[in-house]
Every structure is written in C-alpha cells, then in structure tokens.
Amino acid sequence: MRRGKLVFSSVVCTVMLAVAPVLAADSKKEFVGSEKCKKCHAEEFKSWKGTFHAKIVQPKKTGILKDVVAKWETDGTNPGPTTANVTGKPAKLDDVQYVVGSRWKQRFLVKNEVTGGMQFMNKQYNRLSGMWENYGQKNDWNTMCGTCHTTGYRILEVDKATGKTLKSEWSEISVGCEACHGPGAKHVKSSKKEKKKTIFNPANVSIEAQSKVCGYCHIRVDNEMYKSAQGNPREDLPAPKVGDSYKAGEDWTKWYPEHVVAPGVHPEDPIDKEYTGELKGLFKTDEFAKTNGIFEEAKHHQEYQGFLQSKHYKSGQLSCITCHSPHAGKGKLKKVASGACVKCHDATYTVEKYMPNTGKTADNLFVRSHTFSKNPRKGGKGAADMGPPVMYQ
Length: 393
Known about the structure:
By secondary structure, this protein is α+β, with helices and mostly antiparallel strands. The chain has 13 helices and 15 strands. The protein has helices at 34-38, 42-49, 60-63, 66-70, 146-149, 177-181, 185-189, 207-215, 287-292, 303-307, 311-314, 320-323, 351-354, and strands spanning 57-59, 98-100, 105-111, 118-120, 123-126, 131-134, 150-151, 154-158, 165-169, 172-173, 222-227, 233-234, 260-261, 357-362, 365-368. It is globular, with a radius of gyration of 21 Å. Mean pLDDT is 93; it is low at 3-21.
C-alpha cells in the first residue's frame, strides 16, 4: 500500500466518536431522492424501481427472501445466522433491520450498539445452493460499503489521527436516480430552459466518462485515506473532501491516488500483480490468463477493472451503457444486456460464451467476466441458473 501523510479537509476531534445511526439525510440539501424524480420521469422511475440497483439494500420487511425466513434456524445441514460480526453478540431474525442483496445471495444488517452504525451477521444465504455460508465482514456497513450501497453518501467526520470514519450520511438507501445523474436539487428548481444544464446525463459525455460513472462502484480497491469505524482500510471511494459527496461525472480515478490501490486503474497498480489483503486473488492469473493476456475477474463487483482490459473498451466504441441501462427512456425500452452481442456480431456471439461466470460471489456461484476474451475459459454457475428471487412478502 502506498502511504502518505493523510490530510483531511475538516477539523475533527481525535477521540473516537459514535458513528451516526442509519438514517437517510442530506445536510447540504443537494439531493432530492428518486421519488421526487418520479413526478417528471414516471416511465424511467417505474423501470428503475424493478432493477437490482433499486433493491441492493432493503428494509427487512420488504426485502428478505422467502427461503431465508423458512430456513433461518437451519438449512437442514448448517445453522443460520446467530451472531453480529463486529461485536460478537448474539443476534436473531427480529434484530435484522436491513437485507443486502437478493439476486445471488443475501446478507443481514443489525445495529451496532457500540458505534450506532450497522453491522453484518455471521452468515450469508446462497440462493443457488439454498445453504448458509460463513461471512466474516467485521466492519460497520456504513463505513465500509455505504458509498456504493446508498445515494448521496458523504463522510461528515473523521478521526484526524487514524482516518476512522466517525460520522456519515446519505440521502437515499440503495442506488437511486441521483447516483448516476448527480444531485437534483438545482434541477428541480431550475427553469425549463435550464433543466438539462443542471443534471448529469451519461449519454452526453464521452465513452470513457460513461463507464467511469459505473466504474465508481463496480470496482474493488484498497483505500487507506479513509478507514472504517473499526480502523480498517475502506473498500470504497468516499469523496476527497469531508462533507462532500461523489457527483456523477467527476473523475474519481484522480482522487488521492497515493492512498488507494486500484488494480488496472492506476498505472502503478498492474492488473496481474499478486496483491494482499482484500485484493488477494482479485483476478485469474494462471497460465490460461497469461496466454490470453487477459486476467478475468476472480471476485465480484470489479466489472470495471475487467472491462478496462477488453478491446471493447480500448477501441473507444463501447461503454457500460452500450449494453446496460438502469432504466427505460421515453419511447425506449430498457436494454436487455444478454441480447446486446447480436447488435454487432452474429448469433454465435453469446454472453454465455464470451462472458463466462468467473467472479466468485458465493460458494460455487459466480458473476460474469467483462474482459470479452477471444478464447474464453469455461465459467461456473451464475444468476441465469436460478429463477428470480422471491421475497417473503
């Protein structure tokens, strides 16, 4: 890890404070929330609402899987969750406040009485196998995962001596409209003539800039500029200045690079290097990969780093939103990524062949590679091998 003098943009005490509870708030009044966007963009809102972006973090009541409730005590072989990861205290189903994920797996958040934040429980549910698996993330969720699992996230206070995140907030749980379009307060208040100038539209920027919006979260990094409440390097990229939020269109790749290891993004962090810690085993670096000259994702949520290696990206002709769209548009249906290949190639080009499931997300369960190798390896099972998730309610 590159280390330098950590300089923070606000004066804070050096004594560890309690992390603020999990509440949606926006002290700067920059973000308005997706429900506000619905008033003028009903079609976009409706199609977004059905996406996994909108559902990445949900209250237990609306988001918990039916099978999870049925198997909470045991899956027939393994016991279900019983313990809070950070504090080590017993926790039960009634203590769960939020669930994270539903397509591949599901994890569970309970209150951390010590910090006031949220912590994971000790098991995750694998939807493919229907089994419980150990899960060991021992950091407050809002100080390790909050940047990408919420909209309008900002750090409000840090411990100046250690970099620990002491207090944070966000405007909306999960990935809302403003995560990709930027804060909407000015947009809502502006005149019709000024509307387009006051919001970010990925369709109006370069191919590279389009993909960076997605890459801000679909990436895996090791960040020592900011730490979790427990003092560990964060795995996300909060805005450089305390009190600020990431705004779609900003070039986050240039933020405090001396404190962040971002394989494949920063020139000094080669894609095929053997890293340690959470970055260990990030990509496939075996002889098959070396022969192809492409290192497929071996873990999940680093699609951007896989895509950067591809000729699709390097040609400057395709971006993430060429194949994906978070919502429909006026007079346009929401894109179906699995059918995108045939727009440029013949029917032999399929996602099953050229986007094998290489990134492990749970036991024997994988997400698709975005390297698009001409000689793809065989992948494992993924989301397409399961039916849609079924919620308890």
